[in-house]
Each structure stands twice: as C-alpha cells, then as structure tokens.
Amino acid sequence: xxxxxxxxxxxxxxxxxxxxxxxxxxxxxxxxxxxxxxxxxxxxxxxxxxxxxxxxxxxxxxxxxxxxxxxxxxxxxxxxxxxxxxxxxxxxxxxxxxxxxxxxxxxxxxxxxxxxxxxxxxxxxxxxxxxxxxxxxxxxxxxxxxxxxxxxxxxxxxxxx
Length: 161
Description:
By secondary structure, this protein is α+β, with helices and mostly antiparallel strands. The protein has helices at residues 2-10, 85-90, 126-135; strands at 14-17, 19-35, 45-57, 66-67, 76-77, 97-98, 102-115, 118-123, 142-146, 153-158.
C-alpha cells in the first residue's frame, strides 16, 4: 500500500497559474431506455431525445435564459422539451420494452490556465471550480495540483503574495 501511495504522489505535479478560467457545462438531457427485458437486461439501449446546456464561466451569470443559481452557485439551462409518446414509440424496435423518459442532469468542469506561452485545458472538479470563482475577481494567483500524468486539475489554492 505504501508503494502505491508513493507512486501516486510522485506522478502528480503543481504549477502556479496567474491566468485561468474555470467552466462548468451544465446540461439537461431527456433519455429513454429500451430493452427486450428492462428488469433483467444489464445494458439497455439508451436513446437521447433532447438536450439543453449552459456554459458557466468563473461563476458569472451566463447570457440568455438561465435558471439559478442553484445551491452550488451554478446556472442551468431551461428544460428541453420532454419526448412525446409518439417520439418514444417511433424509436422502439420489435420485441423491445420502453422505459419512462428520464431527465438527466450533468455537469462537466474544466480549467483553462496559462503557464508562459502555453495554455492548457483540463477536466477538474467542483472544489477547483469554486476556488477559481472566489479567486478570479482579484486575479489571485493559484497553485494548481495536477492529477496523475497531469491529465486533470485536482486542487487549486490561492498563493499568498
């Protein structure tokens, strides 16, 4: 177990970013599951009907018609139209059962930051997004902790001047 922890720690790196932007893509998607037996089939076929999304940038209210902010400070799009019975039935294949339309909420967080002349955009999490929202108005430099192989941003902390 100790070797695994050491390996994880050595494969992460940190960087200081003075230019950065955090985004949270919030979306609603109507989907319906189809299967020969919805109760026992482990991998039902999923059909996507309608999606709406809004790009949140640094906690600022997006332009256009949005809902929010929610308890996490995120703005959401208006709901996409629910699929009609006719639309759902049109996509049904012979012998398939049809599930009920489900409204799926999704959030994808990303952080874009500059180091020197290079800009990087990496996936991140809610905690990093919130740190950027708090630091952005004053353009406080942030120390970013990158994930394994520098493929994500795991942590952001203000750098004291």
